[in-house]
Amino acid sequence: MRIPPELHDQILTRAAKGQTTRQIAEWLKKSKAIDVSHVSVAAVIKKHRVERREIAKHVVESYVEKTLPQDLAELDAIQASNVRLLQQAQRDAERESTVANVEKVVKLTAVVQRADEAKKKALGLDQPTEQFGGLAELLAAGFDEAG
């Protein structure tokens, strides 16, 4: 027997609440008079999870495409401000080498580095890829030969 599509949402809800496919199959048998295997229940759950995953992926991609440029511009503005603060703190530490001034330089350096890492991550530059890995090796070899 086939599981009617109108029961799919109820099956997904039960699965989301932690019921096993065997428990859901038993529920279908007792409350809906539908005798199906837990494998059939699993197939329904898998089908809908794949569909929902693709929909969610497209929603997230669309959102990121719309918001990422503005987010990066804001991050750049914040980073520029942090760099100015760091440069001022470095000048202050050079002029008067106190513990407080040095600590300020250390803290601001960490802030600037974290912001750089966040931007690289947002742009996908934090993970090496096959495409660019080979290029990086080629460039590195070229520098080794030149040096």
Helix percent band:
over 70%
The tally of structural domains comes to 1
How many DSSP helices? Answer: 5
Global morphology: elongated
What's the total count of β strands? 0
How far apart are the first and last residues' alpha carbons, in Å? 73 Å
- Measured by DSSP, the beta-strand proportion falls in under 5%
What is the subunit arrangement here?
single chain
Poorly predicted spans: 143-147
The succession of helices and strands, N to C, reads: HHHHH
Layout of helices and strands, plus pairs?
Elements lengths: L7 H9 L4 H12 L5 H58 L3 H25 L6 H17 L1
Helix pairs in contact: 1-3, 2-3, 3-4
Description:
The chain has one domain. Helix 1 crosses helix 3 and helix 3 (38-95) runs antiparallel to helix 4 (99-123). The protein contains five helices and no strands. The protein has helices at 8-16, 21-32, 38-95, 99-123, 130-146. It has 147 residues and is an all-alpha fold. The model is unreliable at 143-147 (pLDDT under 50).
Q: What features would you highlight for this structure?
A:
single chain; 147 residues; mainly alpha; 5 helices; 82% helix; disordered C terminus
Quick recap:
This protein is mostly helical and 147 residues long. The protein is built from five helices and no strands. The C terminus is likely disordered.
